[in-house]
Amino acid sequence: MNRKLTATRESQLKVRQNELRFFTETVDAGRISPLAFFEAGDSCYKDERFYWQNADKTLTLVGIGHATVLTSDGTDDRFKHISDKWKKLCAALIREENDREPVLFGGFSFDPKSVKQTEWDAFPSAHFVVPAFQLSITNGKTEISINMVTESDDAAEKFERLRDERDRLIHIAQVEESALLTKPKVVSIEEISKEHYMETVADVTKKINNGEAEKVVIARSVKLNFADEVPAVTALHHISNEQQESYHFGLQKDGQLFFGATPERLIEITNGRAYSSCVAGSIRRGKSATEDRELGDELLEDSKNREEHQYVVNMISQVFKTFCTDIKISKVPKLMKVRDIQHLFTPVEGKVEKGTDIFNLVKALHPTPALGGVPTDIAMKIIRSEENLDRGYYAAPIGWTDTAGNGEFAVAIRSALLDGDSAYLYAGGGIVADSEPDIEYDETWVKFRPVMRALGGKLNG
To answer: Taking the model in full, what pTM does it have?
Structure first.
């Protein structure tokens, strides 16, 4: 590895003590497996890792260790709180032309006003990290960066120690053999409050028919219990292999891993242009190409699903009109097909207005009608009173931004919270005036299937 300090970086490491400085250094890492690098951090950084891969496989990120952590326990101000802290860090950045932009990775809870004593106790309403060691694979090129945030007067010594640790992690990832990642053995599946869920769907349908709301998304959870503790890398390996068309993510905190494979982008900003995806309305995949096509045609023509989809298109379009110019929106939805399910999909893009960052857009877009309901405020109140579930980071924004202002957040559906020898899986659906509890219940099983299969669970079909 290149260990030579340039004059610029060396001088900055040795001067300006007692003020915030954010150093980064990037080296070419050749060929290295991202999950092997993730696993290299297992012994020393078990609770300080993240994983991200976008849906078209042009970007993979792995973070090990924490250069710094940004959190918020706020409600309305949590997006601004994280944004302001990140801007302060970006202003302190010292990098050279060939260094990769450092990233901030993390997520927000679905609803900070609906916090209960649950499996999500360790996760605040916002949790973001700048990794100490950042692997980035962009269009096939692999780079590893050191990130260091400091105000101390021994920055040069600390940076040199980080270089030694970087080299150790790269060596482990390149040389040590990976364990055989067999699927976990599931010993039991617990449906959590099934009867309550069925009653809630019926009650919410009545509220909608009484004019209290147009649509409300109701979710539920199941718990898988395993014979042994499930390593984080095992869950990430299987979900990534089995859901090739999706965003893959994993975020570790306090012995738990929140992970999943979501088809739904919330927002992407690249070089000043914003991109979003309206994803709502779904049906299962067919057992043959003919049945699959027939089901897709049925979805495109189904009034309930088209109505549900249009709610999302209207809302996301309005947000783009507020924060963007030069907006492009498809007039009719397409089909997005992933392994277990088909969705209605409408892409949206626009040029970001000056002064707008990705957190402005995340705040404005979350929750979309596909995960909350219509009208949003009323739907959220109904969810809080009726659902009896702390969603945690399920159905919430998860993703990254960098010091250049680029970034991408997905909606964390098709996800689970892995906790040692158990895992909590989450799924929901949009309730409208003609919803039927049995049909909604069956649809949740279709949505559980991707994570269930990755973790060794079996469902019919």
So the answer is: 0.92
Q: What is the DSSP letter of 249?
A: E
Q: How confident is the model at residue 5 (pLDDT cuts 50, 70, 90)?
A: very low
Can you tell me the distance from the alpha carbon of 379 to that of 336, in angstroms, rounded to the nearest whole number?
26
Range scoring the smallest mean pLDDT among 76-85, 135-144, 339-348, 421-430: 339-348
Mean pLDDT of 279-284: 87
pLDDT in the model for residue 243: 87
Provide CB contacts within 8 A for 210, sequence distance 6+. none
Q: Between these two residues, 273 and 12, which has the higher pLDDT value?
A: 273
Domain(s) of CATH 3.60.120.10: residues in the chain: 7-175, 186-454
Interval 327-338: pLDDT, tens: 999 999 999 888
DSSP 227-238: SSPPPHHHHHHH
Instruction: Compute how many other C-beta atoms are within 10 angstroms of the C-beta atom of residue 309.
Output: 26
Structure token pair of residue 401:
């931004």
Pick the CATH number of 7-175 from 3.40.50.1820, 3.40.50.1370, 3.30.70.660, 3.60.120.10: 3.60.120.10
The H or E element that residue 448 is part of is: helix 437-454
CA atoms 219, 188, 242, 342: torsion sign:
negative
Q: Are strands 93-94 and 21-28 parallel, antiparallel or unpaired?
A: parallel
User: What number of H helices and E strands is found in the chain?
Assistant: 11, 21
Contacts 24+ apart (CB under 8 A), 440-443: 440/201, 440/218, 441/194, 441/197, 441/198, 441/201, 443/282
Alpha carbons 303 and 318: distance in angstroms, whole number: 22
Q: Which residue has the tokens 């992933």?
A: 338
- Whether residue 224 contacts residue 457, with contact meaning beta carbons closer than 8 Å, is answered with yes
Average pLDDT, the chain: 92
Q: For the residues 256-268, what does the mean pLDDT come to? A: 95
Q: Retrieve residue 342's tokens.
A: 């088909």
* CATH architecture, domain defined by 186-454: 4-Layer Sandwich (3.60)
Catalytic residues: 215, 264
The predicted-structure confidence for 140-157, as pLDDT tens digits, reads as follows 899 999 999 999 888 899
Are the beta carbons of 205 and 433 closer than 8 angstroms? yes
Structure tokens at 275: 């991109």
